[in-house]
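assembly run, all chains below
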Amino acid sequence: MIIGALLSGGKDSLYAAWRMMQTGHEVACFITIQSRNPESYMFHTPNIGLTRLQAESAGIPLMVVETDGIKERELDDLTIAVQRSVREYGIEGIVTGAIQSVYQASRIERICHQENLWCFSPLWLCDQEIYLHSLVSEGFEVIIAGVFAEPLDETWLGLKIDIPFIERMKTINKKYHVSPAGEGGEYESFVCNAPFFKKKINIIETKTWFEHGAGGYLITRAELD
Amino acid sequence: MILIVDLTNPDIRILSDQFVSPVFRIVHQCGQETMAARLEQIQLSQSCIGIIICGTALADSWYMQQQLIPLLERWDGPILGISTGMQMLLSETGGELQTYTGIGMTSVHVTDIGKKDPLMKGKEEFSGYVLHRYVTTPSPEWVPLAISGPTVQVARHCAYPWYGVLFHPEVRNEWVIKRFIASARGFWGSPR
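ok done. output:
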């Protein structure tokens, strides 16, 4: 099946796309919704501008649609992007990285239903710890691009998701009930390398911020290796 | 052992990750031996204490060319049909299939009969995640245990320990699956 993959730049959307590829589907395009609203209900925002590097590295065309990020109206912008992907790439379905978010999943399901498309969420209700281990073992290089919940502080920004990270998340999960994969919005991630990337993304310059319990790791300059 | 039946299109294997694996994990977490099988490959074993028939994607219509009847003829023990599984269970026992799409969280009200049933006992109203293109109006062989307006969300067969649940209990309502497992264990009295 020919698929369009929603791409936020984070681990879940890219891993979901990878799962589709692994099971014989063709990811014909990535779709990025670039929100002007940092509080977007639907779309991840940190470093979203860098999805172009991820798409370039994967050799997959990227469709970018801008949105004001106003609740529900941003879904109209996603619908436009999906319709364009059907016309330009002949996609028959959409893959999302939704893990637990009923809000996100049901809205994308509705758009797919309306456009007569399949909707895939291969990470849906997955075991998050196993998923994180799969990311690491399958060669994804992922860093923390934003933190939004206690006890995650500025020391976590830019950290790589690796085995020690997973162990720390396990401990934190027990005490603070923080979702190991950050599905509750506790943290955001950025993928620098994936098994289907031809080149790794090198981060050259960053700007970090942390205030009132939240922080970001903004990649201001990056290039393909 | 709980047998988990996969109704997803066999040509799109990844659908099992989304619709079967989450149910499998919940059953497994209950300490229950679990086995997953595709509908067309089911083999009933002596150790089976219950069957859960999972749902599938909105766009998937493969199951519509399949039948549960061969399974129902061989099995009168506990069954829990989820979403598409409920649709097949009810429609193949005299129910009427109707086109009616549901996507997202919906309010579920437990009926007076439902409040006395072990599956819904202690619940009055809760939210359930639905994902369906059809609903089934049950035949008189089925008793509605919970509803959303005119739609039957949970039903129980009058003669067999068979339940149909239209919403996806694996999403935010794991207790439904856990209660079903408990009732399946109780149904046989002693270990099989």
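Chain A has a mean pLDDT of 94.

The longest helix of chain A spans residues 73-89.

not gonna interpret more than that til we talk
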